[in-house]
Amino acid sequence: MRFVIVTGMSGAGKSSTLKMLEDAGYFCVDNLPVQLVKKFSKLIMQGNQSKVALGLDIRSGQSLREMDTIIQDIKRSNIPVEILFLDCSQEVLVKRYKETRRNHPLSGVGRVEKGIALERERLYFLRKNADVIIDTSHLLIRDLKAQINKIYLNDEGFSNFYITVLSFGFKYGIPVDSDLVFDVRFLPNPYYVDELKKKTGNNEEVRQYVMASGTAGKFMDKLEDMLLFLIPNYIAEGKNQLVVSIGCTGGKHRSVTLVNELAKRLNNTEYGLKVEHRDIERDD
């Protein structure tokens, strides 16, 4: 029996997640009145449903506050309940609401930012008690689906800390959502080698050229060591995602190579990982 309560910030992907869980064989119910949640949990224990997901969000109004007590009661009844909290950054949520031209449930005709801030405050107790937190700020739908399947279909381990390693070109600007930025323009540039100029760091010839100097390998060793030191400290301070940006001039050769190398090194860690090459398709 697996009973998952899906909640989180409005606009963070709760509806999409419920659809994904439904596709994965879960019996899904959305926006059930809070007063019925305890009775619902008892009914599913008596039924033949082995996988159930219940969507709850700020639309429940003031009664949502009762969920803290209700969840504790459910757990004391030995019903295996889990909380999945979908989070998202303020900036991305505002952008999503502006693109869809929808009003935030708590903003009315006022500013979306205020509604989001109030919702975050009211949902804090659910986030604090969540078993899984997925930050969708940098996730495409396919990335979110992969995470949902990993946790709730394949029963694989999951870390609430998510790392995005991103390559970029300085001539197109530093990614605004970067937490850590590294400049690798000190490495030999394949752009000036005729047979490599039109290729990218995803090609083996370019990778070998960049890594051949030895300096790149030493840099990777130091970067990996620093990140493995920093990440547990970020987690201790409550951070749940990290964007590591590596830049070269055009974002096609050196930065792509090193992002791929870093991803290989971090792939065996317990943390979630995403690789992105922002400028690899740009024209020179």
TrEMBL record:
The protein's GO terms of the molecular function aspect are:
ATP binding; GTP binding
Enumerate the spans annotated as RapZ-like N-terminal domain: 1-154
Locate the RapZ C-terminal domain: which residues? 162-281
> Which residues bind ATP per the record?
8-15
- Keyword hit for ATP-binding: yes
Positions bound to GTP:
57-60
Keywords, comma-separated and alphabetical: ATP-binding, GTP-binding, Nucleotide-binding
Name a Pfam family for this protein: PapZ_C
Which domain of life, per UniProt?
Bacteria
Supply the PANTHER family for this chain: RNASE ADAPTER PROTEIN RAPZ
Read off the HAMAP family from this record: RapZ_like (MF_00636)
What is the name listed in the Swiss-Prot or TrEMBL entry for this protein?
RNase adapter RapZ
State the organism of origin.
Variimorphobacter saccharofermentans
